[in-house]
UniProtKB/TrEMBL annotation:
Transmembrane segments annotated in the record for this chain: 33-52
Source species of the chain: Falsiroseomonas stagni DSM 19981
Protein name listed in UniProt: Aa3 type cytochrome c oxidase subunit IV
Occurrences of domain Cytochrome c oxidase subunit IV bacterial aa3 type (ranges): 27-51
InterPro entries for this protein: Cyt-C_aa3_sf, Cyt_c_oxidase_su4_bac-aa3
Keyword Signal: no
Superkingdom of the organism of origin: Bacteria
Length: 53
C-alpha cells in the first residue's frame, strides 16, 4: 500500500450570509419554472377543451 501523509483539514465556519444568495437564486428559479409549468398546463387544458370537446 502507498504511504500517505496524515491529512489535515481546515474547517471554515459557514454563515447564513454566505449561502443565502445562492439559495435565493435557486428558489427564484424554482418559482419561475413552477409558474411557467402551471401556465403551460392551463394552456394545454384550454386548447383541449376548445378542440376536443
Amino acid at each position: 500500500m502507498a504511504d500517505h501523509a496524515p491529512a489535515t483539514y481546515e474547517l471554515v465556519e459557514v454563515k447564513a450570509e454566505d449561502i443565502m444568495a445562492e439559495r435565493t437564486s435557486f428558489y427564484d428559479g424554482f418559482l419561475k419554472g413552477t409558474t411557467w409549468g402551471i401556465g403551460l398546463t392551463v394552456g394545454i387544458l384550454v386548447l383541449l377543451a376548445i378542440f376536443v370537446v
